[in-house]
Amino acid sequence: xxxxxxxxxxxxxxxxxxxxxxxxxxxxxxxxxxxxxxxxxxxxxxxxxxxxxxxxxxxxxxxxxxxxxxxxxxxxxxxxxxxxxxxxxxxxxxxxxxxxxxxxxxxxxxxxxxxxxxxxxxxxxxxxxxxxxxxxxxxxxxxxxxxxxxxxxxxxxxxxxxxxxxxxxxxxxxxxxxxxxxxxxxxxxxxxxxxxxxxxxxxxxxxxxxxxxxxx
Length: 216
Ligand code: C5P
What we know:
Structural class: alpha/beta
Radius of gyration: 16 Å
Shape: globular
Strand order of the largest sheet: 2-6-1-7-8
Largest sheet: 5 strands, parallel
Bound molecules: cytidine-5'-monophosphate
Strand content: 15-25%
Number of strands: 8
Oligomer: single chain
């Protein structure tokens, strides 16, 4: 089987996870959720009671934590020091704090290195995040920038978490602002990315379009 790397970037709630998992399964490839890595790092920071305003303290904790990542698109999973954190990393506490941890340059360097290692070992892999096409895997075979209207993004997230639409919309806006304005590796469209809008296309159509693009 040939190697293939697909980079899927975009703001929160754009459908990246669903699209990336389905595409990986269709390609018989691995799936890496880099957001889950930043979330797991954040979980470790919160466990240790570190100050979110102390980059050195944050880095110390993250660099001492060992992340184990399962890249099966049917059952992706992540553990920190042997503790499965799939549930807690989706909670409010982690979601609120993650952009601060992800803004620490030394943390990004550490996780980007780990991501590159996982990609190299996998060979065939779909990777989703914010900086995959721009920083982590600039040589990816296909770069996708997935968007959706803010309304559609908030609706998806609030359905997933049984949360209030207005509160979810406010959280997405806050996170997207932090993620796209931070100094190190902000959320940005790669110059050569294919831009797809999942508001109009729908998830299945997006996956079909990506398979078509990879076939070319
Ligand atoms: O994709 P998800 O919403 O789970 O990502 C959680 C957070 O992790 C983002 O809001 C962002 O702060 C950070 N992140 C990042 N770079 C990535 C993936 C996620 O900074 N490649």
